[in-house]
Amino acid sequence: MSDELQLSKSLIDDVMKVVVAADERAKDPFIGSQYLSAIVGFVIGTSEAPAKDKKEIVDELAAFMQHVLEDVSGPVEAPAAPAAPIAPPGSAFGIWKPS
User: Fold this and answer.
1) What is the pTM of this model?
2) Could you give the CA distance from residue 4 to residue 7 in angstroms, rounded to a whole number?
3) Which of 51, 69, 87, 99 has the fewest CB atoms within 10 Å, i.e. is most exposed?
């Protein structure tokens, strides 16, 4: 078995269908991404990993996410001039309430 992830458009579409079924607003890629980020935080936060390792794990995943972003869209470069925000500031904030 390969150590590589088997990421595909089909897998991503299937995961997003589940998220959208739970909340139609997740059709917006930024809201959908918030759900995925919250899921990762929940999975790592509730894992058996020592607390001191959890931040390092999340940092590594953030770097991996940046790598995937660059692979699918090209390098992300800082804009020459400040660009207008796509969403209002603070809109990437979500409130999580345990059930």
Assistant:
1) 0.69
2) 9
3) 99
